[in-house]
Amino acid sequence: MKRNLKIFFVLIIGGLLLKSCFVDNGNYDYKDIMVNKITIKYPVYGLNVYIGEPVLFTPTLTYANTEQADTNIYKWEYHFDNYGCVSTDRNMDVVFDDAVVGKTYNGIVMATDTTTGAVYTQNISFRYNSRYTVGWLILSNESGNSRLNLVRELNGQWFSDKDIYRTLHNKELGTNPKAIVVNRSGRSEVRLIQEGPAGSIILDGLTYANIGNFSSEFVGNKYPEGFKPKFMFAGGNLAAMLGEDGKVYTKTYRGSGTSTYAYDFFVNVPLQLNNQVLDVQYLLGSPSVIYNSLLFDKGASCFYMLYGASYSNAGKLFGLKPPADWTPETGVPSPDNLSNYDVIHCQIKSSGSYQTDIHSVIKEKNTGQLYMYSFEYSSSSTTALNVRNIEFRQIPPAVASLMSEDTKFHMLRGRPYMFFSPGNDPSSLYYYDPRTTMHALFKGDFNSPITSIESNYSTNNSIGVGLENGKFYLMDVSEQVFIGGSEEDKVIFETQLNGKIIDMFYKSM
Hints:
single chain, mainly beta, Immunoglobulin-like, four-stranded antiparallel sheet, 6 helices, about 45% strand, elongated
């Protein structure tokens, strides 16, 4: 479509005449002009349309003169930003092949009374959205090739879209997928950790276009020697990348809302404290925006906060001390000294910008006994770092016997249940309530090992379960199902994807 500068000028004029008329009095008086006065109405004045679909505006006319019946006297024109006049039909039906996904295009419709010259207007707009913006984003491995899939809901029905990257861009995503990085960094993006020539890449969260790779964020566009990415956190004024070797590299930047993905380069010196390089087992992120990260240093057997809330202190480490009323005599380990324990699972349970709940499963080194270990901390400033509500509960032997280092764990973020697949029975899904110590088999007939468990953090009433054979199950874990649901009630939707499911998360933007 070509820009029409003359019509663009008319568009500006028309925008000032919302729901009014621009009149060429000429040989007519005001009474004559008003004879055919109309009001243009639409069910929706701002349309949201999926990529590739037509923008449809079908007007309804309200007449000031109820005796007016001839609608053929009106000449129609639809004008939009960047496009000029796009349609001269009363019912607009246009596909904008070059429209930018996520951008709102403002426009105006003008109906000219050809008998009087009066022009009647209405402001309208449209926005192209990706049908892949919201839903369960699932990474799978099909014969070594990375596949990105989406399970989404539309009008009460669930659909599965397979291999969406190739569908959108007609090219391969990469090879040997390892994980999806889910935390936010001030904009919508999807980060995939994978091996092979393509490396770990960054995708635009709306269009899924490849906008960069992890290695380009390091000085010289290459990783430090021997580095392989395992996880990344970005929030506030900080980004941190964890490698498989336990080393963490950081970068700081101003203004996390910028659209540029490479804010600055990662420092090629691994994170240190007191001249000791950290050996990090867990770098924790969240599906919601948080400013500071938590990490567990396996070498020192303690938790640290990695600060990012302000630019001046971004990248600094702060120890997590126990509350003032804590004493060693209680037998409850402090977050700054877990030397008698191995951490076999750790995640952020719930979070806000400055406060976070940490949930973990730890194993006592001498006895092998498992414990639930959790705490909360708030970090509105570097001088007000408060740890509180430490909980340390032994997991009953009947439950602990089902768990191992191969167990897949996931704790709901807003409710107390933890779901897990036993190491010796990976095709079954159990739940455990730490408050009551109740546990039970939730579903035991998956017929393939569970490879990933994740929850819809926005509702906490459903979880996704991915299997080695490519099956995906969306499970209802609401209280109603726990109390009296049948086996059929538990499964909301199931679908067969291509390849082994590697990782997933619920994408809300």
